[in-house]
Amino acid sequence: MALIAALAVWVYISGEALWAPDIAETASKVVQAPKGWQQSEADLLENRSLTPIAQMADRRAAVVRFLRLCLLHTADATKTGFKRSDTERDAFGCVPLHWSGSGYLKRLLIAAELAHYGGRSVDEATLQTLIEGARGVLPCQRGGNV
Questions:
Q1: Looking at the structure, do residues 79 and 103 belong to the same domain, yes or no?
Q2: Residue 24 covered by a domain
Q3: What confidence tens digit (pLDDT) does each residue in 8-34 have?
């Protein structure tokens, strides 16, 4: 009986040692943008200001870049990872449904898809509305200027 108890304790302790590094690695893992986005995640996450996006001449590209920034922030905030081949829609599908900004993110995703894949133009008012909505989602934008 003592041998079984000792074996159970050894399995419990050695199992803990094997699992603990995985947990620590997952918690400190940096969110990476999917390769298909052809954009460096460092470029998006380094400058979390919306000013460069708001100043882009191509408004359709600005909405897509803005969506990607928000998706990366969301992944960071919710500890969600993306696969290398994920599209923006796939990435959105990884976001937990209970996340507080998921409704806004869905509206942004639809606007970006219509602009990027549907060829719809994005007017100044639409872009400003999307940016204003992000103020509650992106932590660095709360109370800040665009």
A1: yes
A2: yes
A3: 666 666 655 444 444 444 444 556 677
Give the range of the structural domain holding residue 24, as residue numbers without chain letter: 1-29
**Domain shared by 79 and 108, yes or no:** yes
Instruction: Give yes or no: residues 24 and 67 share one domain.
Output: no
Residues 70 and 52 in one domain: yes
DSSP 138: S
- Rounded Cα distance between 98 and 141, Å, is 21
Residues contacting residue 78 through CB under 8 Å, at least 6 positions apart: 95, 96, 99
Token pair 């600005």 is found at 62
Q: What is the pLDDT of residues 70-126, one digit of tens each?
A: 888 888 888 888 888 888 899 899 888 888 888 899 999 999 999 988 888 888 898
Same domain for 125 and 111: yes
Report the alpha-carbon distance of residue 122 to residue 18 in Å, rounded: 51
User: Strands, DSSP E only, in the chain?
Assistant: none
| pTM of structure | 0.69
Distances 120 to 37, 43, 100, 115, 124 between C-alpha atoms, Å:
20, 26, 28, 4, 13
